[in-house]
UniProtKB/TrEMBL annotation:
Pfam families xref list: 7tm_4
Keyword flag Membrane: yes
The protein's name in its UniProt record: G-protein coupled receptors family 1 profile domain-containing protein
Gene Ontology cellular component list: membrane
GO molecular function, one term: G protein-coupled receptor activity
Compartment list: Membrane
Annotated organism of origin: Dissostichus mawsoni
Gene3D superfamilies from the UniProt entry: Rhodopsin 7-helix transmembrane proteins
InterPro entries: GPCR1_Superfamily_Member, GPCR_Rhodpsn, GPCR_Rhodpsn_7TM, Olfact_rcpt
Transmembrane regions listed in the UniProt entry: 6-24, 45-66, 100-118
């Protein structure tokens, strides 16, 4: 049980750290465009990607060890009635709450700085900034809402929730972002957008 919780929360944390790095990339591109190529070098991107992967692995592993030491898994996972989701995640959520909040605050800070810069620039600049940030904003909001649904389960006892709602909320951040991200970023590619526009203009019958 602990192994599955570790894998799930490591994945969730990796998603969050990658979104944080993407927010930093857009912050540099919009607020410091002249320094973009000097700050976002290939070596720095490699370093940031390694941090995005290994930091969650280490931090979630640390919290998992704490769970074993305090025997939280044996106490809370003795039966299905003690679960508030599909897995025993409540102790790990309680320990790692700050770990999730720090990246979220950083992303909000970068977008606040971007908004302040856009206020002083032309409408054309704001339009380009929005086009650059919109896919990331959609992905970030989707993931944040899905993660909030999972965290909200820890506020309730198992017998206070409808089992169907519990399943949906538990799986939201594992299913919705992976389905949402390819669509959001794929529509931004000219080749994919062109195919979709031609399909919509001609209609399904014309394609056949």
């Amino acid at each position: 049980m602990l192994y599955s919780v570790y894998v799930i929360y490591t994945y969730a944390s990796c998603e969050l750290t990658i979104l944080t790095i993407m927010a930093y990339d857009r912050f540099i591109a919009i607020c410091q465009p002249l320094h973009y190529h000097s700050k976002m070098t290939f070596q720095k991107v490699q370093f940031l990607v390694l941090v995005a992967v290994f930091y969650p692995v280490c931090i979630v592993g640390f919290y998992s060890v704490l769970l074993l030491n305090y025997r939280c898994v044996e106490i809370n996972c003795t039966g299905f009635s003690a679960l508030t989701g599909l897995w025993c995640s409540s102790p790990l959520v309680s320990l790692s709450g700050d770990h999730h909040l720090h990246p979220l605050f950083f992303v909000l800070y970068t977008y606040l700085r971007i908004l302040l810069v856009c206020r002083r620039r032309s409408s054309e600049f704001r339009g380009k900034a929005l086009q650059t940030c919109l896919p990331h904003i959609i992905s970030f909001m989707t993931y944040s809402i899905s993660l909030f649904c999972e965290l909200s389960l820890t506020r309730f006892e198992a017998d206070q929730l409808n089992p169907s709602i519990t399943v949906i909320l538990s799986l939201a951040y594992l299913i919705i972002p992976p389905l949402n991200n390819p669509i959001v970023y794929g529509l931004g590619l000219p080749q994919i957008k062109g195919v979709i526009l031609r399909f919509l203009k001609k209609g399904p019958a014309a394609e056949i």
